[in-house]
Automatic annotation (TrEMBL):
It holds the Pfam family PPR. This is Pentatricopeptide repeat-containing protein. Belongs to the PPR family. P subfamily. SUPFAM superfamilies: TPR-like.
Length: 278
C-alpha cells in the first residue's frame, strides 16, 4: 500500500492535481504508519527538492517522529539545524518527541541537552513535556525517578493532570508497587483531579493481579457508577478473586450488574455464576 501511495504522489500531476506540502506530509505520515523509516528519510531528502515543495512544521515533526521511532534520535539534531536555517521554529511536539526518543534509547544526558535547547527557544516545559518524561521513565521501570519528577512539579506549583497520574499509577502497578499506586490514586482525587476510565481500568486490573480484591471491588464500583466498566477478563478475575476470599455474595452481585449491562455476555456470566459456591 505504501508503494502505491508513493507512485500516486509521483504521478499526481497526471491526474491534474497540484502537489503540496500537505500531500507530502500525508505521504510521510503513511510511511511512519507503515514503519518504513528508510522511506521516510528518502522522501524527506529527495521529494521537496524534486518537486519544489517547502517543508513546514508538520513535515519536520513527522520526520522527527520517524527518526526517534527507529532508534536514531541523535539524527534529529540535524533536522533542528535545518529548521533553524529555514526559520521554522520547533514546537512542544518537536521537543517532546525527541525527549521520548532519547529516554527510549536511555540517553539521559541528551534529555538534559534538549531541555536546555528549549530554553534557547524561550520555551518552558509545560505539563505535556513532564508527562512525556514521566511516562518514559515509567516505561523503563524507573517509576521512583518519575515520582521524584512529579514531586518537583508540585513543588514548583505546577498542576498535574489525569494523564500525569495515569502514567505513574500504571508504572508503579507494573513494578508491583500497588501501595504507591493506591496512594497516588487517592492523592489524585484529593487534589480534585478526576481519574479517567483508563485510570480505573488499570488500577482494577493490577489490583486483581496483586490479590487485593477488596480495593479492586471498591475502585470497580466507583468506576461503574460513572458508566465505565472494565473488560470481561478483568471483571471475571475480580469475581473469581472475591470468591477466593469468601465474598461470594459480592461476586454474585457483580455478576448481576454485568448481566444487566451487557446482554451479549449473559450466557458467559450465567456459566460463571453457576459455578459459584452455594
Amino acid at each position: 500500500m505504501l508503494d502505491h501511495a508513493v507512485r500516486t504522489f509521483e504521478q499526481i500531476d497526471e491526474l491534474g492535481i497540484t502537489r503540496s506540502v500537505r500531500s507530502l506530509n500525508a505521504l510521510l505520515f503513511a510511511s511512519v504508519v507503515a514503519k518504513d523509516y528508510k522511506e521516510v528519510r528518502r522522501i524527506f531528502l529527495e521529494f521537496p527538492k524534486m518537486y519544489g515543495i517547502v517543508p513546514d512544521l508538520d513535515t519536520y515533526n513527522t520526520v522527527i517522529k520517524a527518526f526517534c521511532a527507529s532508534g536514531s534520535s541523535s539524527s534529529v539534531y540535524s533536522i533542528l539545524a535545518e529548521m533553524d536555517r529555514k526559520k521554522c521554529k520547533p514546537n512542544a511536539v518537536s521537543f517532546g518527541t525527541l525527549i521520548a526518543g532519547f529516554y527510549k534509547e536511555e540517553k539521559y544526558e541528551e534529555v538534559g541537552k534538549v531541555l536546555n535547547m528549549m530554553e534557547k527557544y524561550n520555551m518552558h516545559p509545560g505539563i505535556s513535556i513532564y508527562n512525556i518524561r514521566i511516562q518514559s521513565l515509567c516505561k523503563l521501570k524507573r517509576s521512583s525517578e518519575a515520582k521524584a519528577l512529579f514531586d518537583g512539579i508540585l513543588s514548583r506549583g505546577m498542576k498535574p493532570n489525569s494523564v500525569t497520574y495515569l502514567h505513574l499509577i500504571h508504572g508503579f502497578c507494573r513494578e508491583g508497587n500497588l501501595d504507591e499506586a493506591k496512594r497516588l490514586f487517592k492523592n489524585m482525587v484529593n487534589r480534585g483531579c478526576q481519574p479517567d476510565s483508563d485510570c480505573y481500568f488499570t488500577l482494577v486490573h493490577f489490583l486483581c493481579q496483586g490479590g487485593d480484591f477488596d480495593t479492586a471491588l471498591e475502585v470497580c464500583k466507583e468506576s461503574m457508577a460513572k458508566a465505565w466498566v472494565p473488560n470481561f477478563s478483568t471483571m471475571k478475575s475480580l469475581v473469581n478473586g472475591l470468591v477466593s476470599i469468601s465474598k461470594v455474595e459480592e461476586a454474585r452481585e457483580l455478576i448481576g450488574k454485568m448481566k444487566e449491562r451487557f446482554y451479549k455476555n449473559v450466557d458467559m456470566w450465567n456459566e460463571i455464576e453457576a459455578g459459584l459456591p452455594r
